[in-house]
Amino acid sequence: MKLSVEFPSVAYREGPEGVRRLAQALERIGYDHIDIFDHVVMGFPLEGRPPGPYHAAMPILEALVTLGYLAAATSRVTLGTEVLVLPQREPTLVAKQVSTLDTLSGGRIRLGVGVGWQESEYEALGADFRTRGARMDEAIALLRAYWTEPQVTFEGRHYRATVMGMEPKPPQGRRLPIWIGGASEAALRRVGRLGDGWLASRVSDAEDGRRAIATIRRHAEQAGRDPAAIGLQSMVAPPPRDAEGKRFYAEPARVVASLTAGASFQRRARLADLEAIHTINERYARRGILLSRTPEVAISICLLEDLRREGPYAAVFRDVRDPGRPVDWLGNPAEQRKARR
CA 257, CA 321: separation in Å to the nearest integer? Predict the structure, then answer.
């Protein structure tokens, strides 16, 4: 099993140095993979426009450009998208961008793709929302052709290429993994027939998960593929949608206290790494804004193996339990936090 984290775009508010420190801290802590969320533009509410799950003013860094920055700041952790809305982008350009990312990162890229849900975004980018499924299938085939073949000729309904070359090839070549997101029947069929893995954004229960996986495997077998070779990824700590969940993340002391009380010892890390992750989230969480989908996972993974009742962090947790002494995400007293800044 590997552990992935979705990188919070809002980290840009801490400046380029804050983004770099956060990525490097995630790598040092021991995460295996960093994913980037993708939307190019977001539609404001209009009459007749279906409402979406995100506010139109939500800041979202461009996914592939951000991956290039993270690749330069890290050396081990693999990097990817979760998910890139592929049918609203020109696939030949995406093939070149991802190939370049894989080359400059030393073969550390995984491309996660999906068809998206926002028709207004497709319209803004000049793409046809209604044919997104068919174009997704063609785009995946075209990407793999450019990453593998010295000369590419492709005759699809939506995309064409006549004796074209693209160099350099990605170090992973055709093995560069393409994982597919979505939970519809069409998405699960696409995973089974074309995908190297499934990106499950929200599995409601065990039965729901079993049903989806069985569907993927059935389509893989029908396509003559090995179902066991298809990877699976599911979100461990999805963002809370209810008011109480959002209030919980707005109170750092509750987060730290609840997680330290029942956390299992997992991986060795440094306090500075944990601080780098949560310094960014701290300022906005106090305003009731959830910036990252992974605060629970991040904190529990960051706990040191030598974290014991009598260990060096015992005083931190005593501070958390003292309601009269304000603390930040790390449990550091407010006066210590001011001095550090």
Answer: 7
pLDDT in tens, 177-199: 999 999 999 999 999 999 999 99
| Both tokens assigned to 144 | 């793999």
Taking the C-alpha atoms of residue 75 and residue 52, their distance in angstroms, rounded to an integer, is 36
> Largest Cα–Cα distance in the chain?
71
Q: How far apart are the first and last CA of the chain?
A: 37
Q: Give me the count of residues in the chain.
A: 341
**Cα–Cα distance, 323 to 40 (Å, whole number):** 43
Helices (H), 250-309: 252-262, 271-285, 295-302
Query: What's the pLDDT tens digit per position in 212-238?
Result: 999 999 999 999 999 999 999 887 655
Domains of the chain listed by start with CATH number: 4-234 (3.20.20.30), 243-340 (no CATH)
Residue with tokens 């994982």: 179
- How far apart are alpha carbons 188 and 180 in whole angstroms? 8
pLDDT confidence of residue 306: 29
Which one is predicted more confidently, 177 or 10? 177
Contact indicator for 299, 264 with CB cutoff of 8 Å: no
Runs of H (alpha helix) within 75-234: 91-105, 119-124, 132-148, 185-194, 206-222
Q: How confident is the model at residue 164 (pLDDT cuts 50, 70, 90)?
A: very high
Q: What pLDDT digit, counting tens, does each position of 292-309 carry?
A: 334 333 333 333 222 323
DSSP summary character for residue 227: G
What is the Cα–Cα distance from 243 to 118, expressed in whole angstroms?
25
| Structure-derived torsion over alpha carbons of residues 68, 74, 79, 83, reported in degrees to the nearest 10 | -60
